[in-house]
Amino acid sequence: MSQIKVLTGQSALAFLLTHDPEDAHHFGVHIPLKSKRDSSYAAYAEGDLIADPNAFMKVKTISTSPIKQEIAIRVPNLKLTFTYLGDFQYGGSGSYPIKDTGGDEVAGTIYIRGDAPPPGDSGLNCQQFPSYDGTGKDGRTSIDLWNAQEITAVFKTNIENYAYGSNTGGQWKQDA
To answer: Which domains does the chain have, with CATH numbers?
Structure first.
């Protein structure tokens, strides 16, 4: 097996856009937790491990033509709330970037590396994965948040509507 690679805080947040923290071990990477986002190294120490804070998302559609939504992500432990009210620029004809939450807060996790996102302007990219037939659940929502300098956080809902394979049993073979 190859040597474990240590990700900087910035790289860790990019990794978390498409993967869960538990996947890091399978990919052979160490995700820094307390290390500053702009650090050029990551600590290995046990004391470097912290829990990522719980967060809660609300989504409300303000208009459908053009699409305009209000998105709020509340992080009680950090006493922070991210809010967005606006439209979306994306290719394609999808009607809703994220489904309304019906006034309810949807539980999730906010991944930060180092300091909490600083107060001020922030951009966002958001994606909601489709639900699997028969589950009755909406797909997991993933939102990355960034300012003019860097990615500052990744929010993911706690919805577990994805398939995860076994650690063994698969195999690559050379084609003839």
So the answer is: 5-48 (no CATH), 54-174 (2.40.128)
Cα of 11 vs its chain's centroid, Å: 13
pLDDT at 76: 94
Q: Which two tokens stand for residue 121?
A: 């302007």
* Other beta carbons less than 10 A from residue 11's beta carbon: 18
100, 59 in Cβ contact below 8 A? yes
Structure tokens that stand for 66 in this block? 């053009």
Beta strands in the chain (DSSP E): 5-6, 29-30, 54-64, 67-75, 80-87, 106-111, 123-128, 141-146, 151-157
d(CA 134, CA 176): 40
Positive or negative, the Cα torsion across 101, 97, 157, 154? negative
Whether the Cβ atoms of residue 18 and residue 143 lie closer than 8 Å to each other: no
Q: Over the stretch 16-65, which tens digit does the pLDDT of each residue have?
A: 766 666 666 666 776 665 444 334 444 444 444 556 789 999 999 998 87
Within a 10 A sphere around the Cβ of 146, how many other Cβ atoms?
A: 17
Residue 148 CB partners (closer than 8 Å, separation 6+): 121
pTM over 0.85: no
